[in-house]
Amino acid sequence: xxxVSEVSEAxxxxxxxxxxxxxxxxxxxxxxxxxxxxxxxxxxxxxxxLFEAEGKQLRARELGELLLWExxxxxxxxxxxEKRGLVERTQCDTDARGTxxxxxxxxxxxxxxxxxxxxxxxxxxxxxxxxxxxxxxxRTAAPRVLHVIEPPDCDELDNVTELTA
Length: 165
Hints:
Elements: H1 9-37, H2 41-52, E1 57-59, H3 60-67, H4 71-83, E2 87-91, E3 99-103, H5 105-125, H6 132-149, H7 154-164
Antiparallel strand pairs: 1-3, 2-3
């Protein structure tokens, strides 16, 4: 495989192991969320984001930004969750085009059911098996990878435009 790319066999092995680890972690966490609270990972992402928000609600646009989701994904996910009584939509008083997404009592209960075992599962399946040195390596590596792959902020784009103009 390394003959057709600039990736060595040893690097491919690291990559394959990383992908398998990520997939298996996702499966373990998904199973735990389903068992404990009857919710999916995307449900939990929305619920936890709302749970941590001031007033337990966010504008739909802001929710999407925090989750790094497209507008349509937020809309579809929220619609499914609204049907199950986990969240509710309300019109924004100050902006007729805006919508608030709020956590319902059922959504709060589901979040609380999921939280303790979710954190314990992350601890058991990830943190407890890594040494302090390995955690330090991840702490250093993750932001460097994210810097390369995450889209720049609008402020950064403005700065680039100013520099090239």
